[in-house]
Amino acid sequence: MRIGVGITLVTAGAIIAFAVRDTSGPINFTVVGVIIMLAGLAGMWLSYRVANRNHPEHDDAAIIKPRVEEQYRTDPHAYPLEHEIDVTPSEYKERPTEHR
Predict the structure, then answer these.
(1) Consecutive 10-residue runs of the chain (100 residues): their mean pLDDT?
(2) Where exactly are the transmembrane stretches of this chain (predicted)?
(3) CA distances from 94 to 87, 89, 90 (A)
(4) Following DSSP, what letter does each residue of 23-85 receive, concatenated?
(5) CA distance 62 to 41
């Protein structure tokens, strides 16, 4: 059931429950309308759940597994560089002179 069908059921159920005032027969149209509205709401909820089943619901579902996190963990003190890194922009560096 798609969301449009669910909205249609809720609308039809509301019309039956609140607009129809026939009390002569054995059918209680208010109860029938409420049941149809609940069926429409359940259909919309199920449609939403099926459409979004691949999305994590909780933040803890998006946590990286510890074994995978260990692969990408870097500790700058564990592997010290043997030389300093020069972060001076190239336009401010002195150009080397060519020896001929």
Answers:
(1) 87 93 84 95 90 64 70 68 76 73
(2) 29-48
(3) 13, 10, 8
(4) -SSS--HHHHHHHHHHHHHHHHHHHHHHHTTTS-SSGGGGPPPHHHHHHH---TTTS--SSPP
(5) 29
**CA max distance for the chain:** 113
Cα(35)–Cα(42) distance, integer angstroms: 10
- Alpha carbon distances (Å) from 81 to 50, 65, 70, 73, 75: 51, 29, 21, 17, 12
How far apart CA 44 and CA 38 sit, in angstroms, is 10
Whole-angstrom distance, CA of residue 55 vs CA of residue 43: 19
State the first-to-last Cα distance of the chain, in angstroms, to the nearest integer: 81
How far is CA 48 from each of CA 9, 39, 58, rounded to the nearest angstrom? 16, 14, 16
